[in-house]
Design a protein that fits this description.
mainly alpha, Heme Oxygenase, Chain A, Arc Repressor Mutant, subunit A, three-stranded antiparallel beta sheet, 58% helix, binds pyrroloquinoline quinone, PqqD_sf, PqqC, EC 1.3.3.11, oxidoreductase
Length: 361
């Protein structure tokens, strides 16, 4: 398909576009190249990745987050107009916060911790793919070296981010039982910050790209930035989806994680359920058959959990009266299996559900 507004090559004649035509041309670049179209994002949002693949995304994306204020400081350093700097510096505050514990980088660390990482491991940036680092650093170099108009134009991918963020948050909450609203708190703030930043940058570019040459350069800068985002996802896909070639030194599943709480001693509030525990569904949580997907799910406020067959068999017997021992006994009879093995298995499974707050004892 030929784009309506293909970015002209450097030696091509181009008439001066009106500001609105320039905006349309920039939006057209996003429609064809923004990272919402990347297969890795499609898998992420549709719940098709496993927990380790989601972890790989969270870990690598941390590098992008951590370098955004470095990038913005490089942009700021090129601005000779105090009024412009006053506006742009807000971006650095948004990411760094005004105090320790505040700001976007901190919220991304919470996201990474939410999927199991130890904070120190993430901060160390060990394990981040070299390709991620190369892409992100290419962005920082770009804004440091190119004229200000191009540096600002390269941030215009943010025009398209609110749509992908809304889709991502809804998709991840619905499709992954280990993702909570708290874990994704990072994105909430971006939904107001990104449009504010993008509106400003777009007006600047429309106003300052006053020749065909400058307009072409602004388009090329946005195209470049789309590739910065796209190649990060290519690298993730190659290493952690297919063919699954993790480069030497990069994160391997299992590394850098905090031990899961379910390994706590038996019988405690967080430990595996034991025979005498009586599990029950908390208020607001229900086992439901989903007619569309033709499978059972656990419905909790604002969240749905997919269940495997074993979990469904157990949860059908959870009624707030039967103990874990009773449930194991019934399953052992139905499936002609060893009762003590079943009891141990379901004790662990129920504890995992309890950790996600969809089961109580
Ligand atoms: O979640 C996303 O898909 C997404 C995309 C982008 C983007 O389009 O560059 C940014 C962000 N998030 C983001 O959180 C962020 O802070 C940010 C800063 C910038 C930038 O170029 O200055 N882009 C983005």
């Amino acid at each position: 398909m030929t784009a309506i507004f293909p970015t002209p090559a450097a030696d091509e004649d181009q008439r001066l576009l009106s500001p609105d035509e320039l905006e349309a041309a920039l939006r057209d670049i996003g429609a064809r190249r923004y990272h919402n179209l990347h297969p890795f994002h499609r898998l992420l949002h549709d719940g098709k990745l496993n927990k380790d693949q989601v972890r790989a995304w969270a870990l690598n994306r941390y590098y992008y987050q951590a370098m955004i204020p470095v990038k913005d400081a490089a942009v700021l350093a090129r601005m000779q107009d105090a009024q412009l700097r006053r506006i742009w510096r807000q971006r650095i505050v948004d990411h760094d916060g005004d105090a320790p514990g505040d700001g976007g980088i901190e919220r991304w660390l919470k996201l990474a911790e939410g999927v199991g990482f130890s904070r120190d491991y993430v901060l160390s940036t060990k394990g981040i793919l070299s390709a991620t680092k190369f892409s992100v650093e290419a962005y920082v170099h770009f804004v440091a070296e190119k004229p200000l108009l191009e540096a600002i134009a390269s941030s215009l991918t943010e025009m398209f981010s609110p749509t992908i963020i809304s889709e991502r948050v809804a998709g991840m909450l619905k499709n992954y039982d280990f993702i909570t609203k708290d874990t994704l708190a990072y994105f909430e703030k971006r939904l107001t910050q990104a449009p504010r930043d993008a509106d400003f940058a777009l007006e600047y570019v429309k106003q300052h790209a006053t020749t065909p040459e400058l307009q072409r350069k602004a388009m090329a800068a946005l195209t470049f930035k789309c590739t910065v985002l796209w190649t990060q996802l290519d690298a993730l896909y190659f290493a952690y989806v297919a063919p699954g070639m993790v480069p030497p030194e990069a994160w391997q599943p299992g590394e850098g994680l905090v031990a899961e709480k379910t390994t706590a001693p038996a019988g405690g509030k967080h430990g595996p359920f034991v025979g005498s525990d009586v599990p029950r569904l908390p208020r607001g949580v229900r086992l439901r058959f989903d007619d569309v997907r033709e499978k059972h799910v656990l419905l909790a406020p604002e969240r749905t959990f997919d269940l495997d067959d074993n979990a469904v068999a157990v949860l059908k017997l959870v009624d707030g009266k039967r103990s874990v021992g009773d449930i194991a006994g019934e399953l052992a009879a139905n499936y002609a299996a060893d009762r003590s093995l079943i009891e141990a298995d379901i004790g662990t499974m129920l504890a995992e559900l309890a950790q996600k707050r969809v089961l109580e004892r």
